[in-house]
Amino acid sequence: MDTALSFLIIIVGAASGFFLGAYLHKKQLSAAFEGAQSESKKILEDARREADQLIKQSLREGKEEAKNRRKLFEEEAKKRRADFTRLEQSIQSKEQNVDKKYQGLEQKEKDIETKEKRVQLEEKRYVKLLAEAEVALAKTQKTLEKVANMSADDAKKELMAAIENQARKEAQTTIRAIEAETRKEAEVRARSILSVAVQRLSGEYVNDSTISVVQLPSEEMKGRIIGREGRNIRAIEQATGVDLIIDDTPEAVIISCFNPIRREIAKITLERLIADGRIHPARIEEAADRVTTEFDLILKEHGEQAAFEVGITDLHPEVLIYLGKLKYRTSGLQSVLQHSVETAHLCGMLASEIGFNVKRAKRAGLLHDLGKAVDQEAEGNHALLGAELCEKYGEHQEILEAIRHHHQEELTNVGPLAVILVAANTVSMARPGARKEVLESYVKRLEDMEAIVRTFEGIEQTWVLQAGREVRVIVKPEGVSDEDVVDLANNIAFKLRTEVTFPGQIRVSVIKEAKFTEFAK
Fold first, then answer.
1. Helices in 278-411 by DSSP H: which ranges?
2. Which parts of 105-216 are beta strand (E)?
3. pTM, 2 dp
4. Residue 311 and residue 341: Cα distance in Å, rounded?
5. Residue-wise pLDDT tens digits, 191-240
6. What is the pLDDT of residues 90-139, one digit of tens each?
7. Which DSSP state fits 228?
8. What's the rounded Cα separation, in Å, for the pair 22 and 37?
9. On the CB side of 314, how many CA atoms lie within 13 Å of its CA?
C-alpha cells in the first residue's frame, strides 16, 4: 500500500510538474512574443523615420540642383547680354568714326571752296592791276612823246623795257610769296591727286600691289559667298575692311584694298571659310577675328626669317612683328622688308671695308625703315618713328642715331654708322631695277636732264648727282646777278618738272662763285 501511495504521489508530482512546466513555457513564449512585437514596432518606426529623412534629403538635393541650374542659366544669359552690348557698342563706334570722316571731308571741301574764292579775288585784283598798268602806259607814252621828242616806236620800246624790268621784279616777288603759300597746302593737294591717279591707273604693277585673287573650287561657291541678298559679302567686307569683287572671272574672287595687311587677312579668312564650307555672318566674323589674332604669328615668322638671313638672332619679339609688317609694304619693285635686308647686307660690306662693327652695321640696316611699319594713326617722319620704336626696345644709341639721320642730305656731327647707313640705303634705292627703271631709261633720263639745264644762258658747268636726285649748276659770275641766280634756279626746276618724268623730287643747286687774282710785285 505504501508502494501504491508512493507511486500515486510520484504520478501526481509528475503531472503537476508537467503542467507547471507547460504553464511556465507558455508564459515564456508569451513574453517572447510580446518582445518580438515590440521589436518589430521599433524596427517599423526606425524604417519610417529613415524613409522620412531620405525623402527630405532628396527634396533638399532636388531644390539645390534646381537652384544651381537656374544660376548657370542666369550667368549664361548675362554673358549673352554682355556680348550683345559689346557688339552694339562696336557698331556705334564704327558709325561714329564714319560720321567723323564725313565731317572731315565736308570741312576739306569748305576749305577748298574758300581757297578757290581767294584765287578768284586774286584774279580780279590782277585784272584790275593790268588795267591800271595799261592806263599808266598810255599816259607815260604821251608824256615821253612831248618831253623827249621821241618817236612813238622808240618811246614804246623804252617804256616796254622799263615796264618789263619792273614787272619781272614784281613777278619774282609775287611768285616767291605764292610758292611759300602753296607749299603749305601742297601736301594735302598732292595726296588727293596721287590717290585719284593711283586709283585710275590700271597697270600691272598697281594691280599686283592692290589686289589678291582667291581661287574657288567651283562657280557655285560665288553664290554662297554673296549670300542671301548679299549679306555674306557685306559681312566679309565689314569684318576685314576690304572690297570683294565677284565678276565673270572663272572660279576666282578678287580682293581689293590698298592696305596689304588687311588684304592678306581677308584672303586667309576667305580661304578658311571656303575650306570649312560654313559661310554665314556669324561664322565670317568669328573667322576674321581668329585670323586677325593669329596674324601676329605670321608676321613674326617673316621677321624671324629676315633676321636669320642677315645673321641677327636677338631681336625683341615685338620688333620681329614690325619687321614682318614690312613684307606687306612696297617701295618701287621691292617690298620694304626685302629692301631692309639688302640694305643690311650692304651696311655689313661697307663696315667690313672700313673696319667698323659689322654686326651693328647690319642691325642698323635691317631696322632703318622700321617706322614704315607703323600705321597712319601715328604721326611723324618714318625715320623718327623707327628710332623711337628701336629706343623703346633697347637698341644701341649709335643705331638710333643712324636710323634718325638716314634720310638727311647733310651729315654733320654724326657717327660713322650713320654715314654707312645713308650710303647703303641710297645704293639700294637708286640702283637700276629697284625703282622699276631699266638701265637704258635711267641713263637716258640723266642725259635729258643735263641737256635741259644746258639750254639756259650763263651756265658754265652742270652735274647730275645722286642718281638724278640733285642737279648742281655753276654759273658765270660776270654775266649773272644775285637775283638772276634765284630766277635761274626756279626756271630750271620748272622746266625739269614739266619736261622730265622722275620719281620723288630733284634738288636744284645754282652756285655763283667769283674769284679775283692779283700779284704783288
1. 281-310, 317-326, 336-354, 358-367, 382-392, 397-404
2. 211-215
3. 0.46
4. 10
5. 554 344 334 333 334 444 567 788 888 888 888 888 888 888 888 888 88
6. 888 888 888 888 888 888 888 888 888 888 888 888 888 888 888 887 77
7. G
8. 22
9. 7
